[in-house]
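Sample entry (600 residues):
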Amino acid sequence: MTSVRRAWALAGLAVVSWVDVLLELIAFALLCVGLVLFFSPVVELARIRSRRTRELVGQWTGREIPSPYRPAPPEPQRERDGWYRDGTQLYRRAWWIRWNRRFTWIMEDPATGREFGWQLLNPLVALVFAGLSLVSGPVALRGYAGWTAYWLGPRAPRRKSWPHRRLETLGHQLGLWAISLAQLGMTVAQLIVLFGAVPVFPTVTRASRAVADTFRREAERWTGVRIAQPYVPPPALPIPRGDGLYQFGKQLYEEPWWPMRRARLRWMLRDRATWRDMAAAVVLPVVTPVLWVPSAALVFWGMYGLVALWIGAGHGWFEMVGLPGVTSTGGAFAMTPVTLAAVFLGLLPTRWSVRAQAKLGRWLLGPTEASRLAQRVHRLDQNRVEVTVAQAAELRRIERDLHDGIQSRLVAMGMKLGAVEALIDHDPDKAKQLAAELREASSEALTELRSLVRGIHPPVLSERGLVDAVRAAALDSPLKVEVTASVPGRLEQPAEACAYFAVCELLGNAAKHGEARRATVALEYLDGVLRAIVTDDGKGGADAARGTGLRGIERRLSGFAGRLALTSPPGGPTEAIVEVPCQLDPGPSSPKTSTSSETA
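Predicted structure, serialized as tokens:
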């Protein structure tokens, strides 16, 4: 009877979860129309009921169900000047940053979708188990515990099945098509303001470019086809003349707003990428359905046909494509392979068609040779500034270390030598003691000097190459680091030094700020690019805009036209990809290939 009471109590709690489902659907509808502030609180309120269910199941059945959610994001930290910073934005109060982080945390957590499915199905299942408890008692209660643990417990990542991957790819095709439709809407808005409100054209164009950038980003994330931005770099900010006025053409202005506005308008009108984006917005929604409509039609026809065969909901479904009607169970068995074959044929070309869709987008939205040249000139100017700043900072660091460390020790040693000279005649014992201290101080100075030299360029990097130098850094790290490498011998030494210091900085950040325990470093060289992938199991939340160490890595990479790609969701894991374009060292060690794995 105790098990029956508990099973019916859980069933009553489960029925209330339909209220949570209704509230979540209303909040999602409001989210779709721009009212974004309600979704996160509603989901977190529903999680309270889910947590209570897990607690009761654990108390009544002895089966503990851990929390399935990722760790919550950290609280915003106030800067020294009293502001809260999120990326490049400053806020006087922390509530918006807190809400934005929690919204991202909820939306990106796979447990959110599983929990919604559980809330939707759980009332029916709980009532079934409650009815079974009248007969089987504790067995039904334990069965409900297993059901709850399956939905609300943590899950290890599993490899997706072939149909799942193909259906996901088909969804990616539909997603790219939806983004191109949104870009078409922005293009219509651009044309309207171009002929009716030209001063607003730069604002609308920036919004349209944001949609086009979304297509480029998602195409690379879903298909691996990288689409670079084609836009010519923006004009520089206006500089006042000697009389304090700002000039644009033959017109003078007292304030910089109008010159900057006119310069940006001319920049966008003269940039060919603006008009190519508009052309792509017209072509992509019309042409790309040729790639996904046949697959979607076959999959829908096959799935609905399968339902129609065994539920009887689709009378005449097969006659509409010229197939014989199904009126018996034998006919249903005979037509089932046909429906499965339709689904299979619809899913088969999806990987090829989604890449074709992304490549068409790259042809329309990618950069031209003129825009590549303009971007390269702009990037070289930026790299020159970055390299100059990085060199100046490195020189200041070396000067500070020499002045505060080695120089002070040498001065002290000189003073002690003078004392030894004064004491050696009338107090030999004291002189010997000072000489021993001098010997110890000289050893410490030598150790500090070697450490300074390693900070400039480690000897192991020059003697044994990048792979062994990274392994040595992994041994010195407080983390348990696994190093894997596939590098064909020695590379250009400046590129090796850049990658080495980037890896060391990333490992240091993982141990100091990420609170990680384990990390992996993968080194590979492919198609003229040295790639270092550093992954740790820390708390995540790393931001290149806030971290001075990450900014230093970007400065180093800018001198090699390299890049740093950082993925660090709140709760982790953190993955940093460092790419350095370089060539093989033409020395005698270049034919050697290092392919190995080692744990430090």
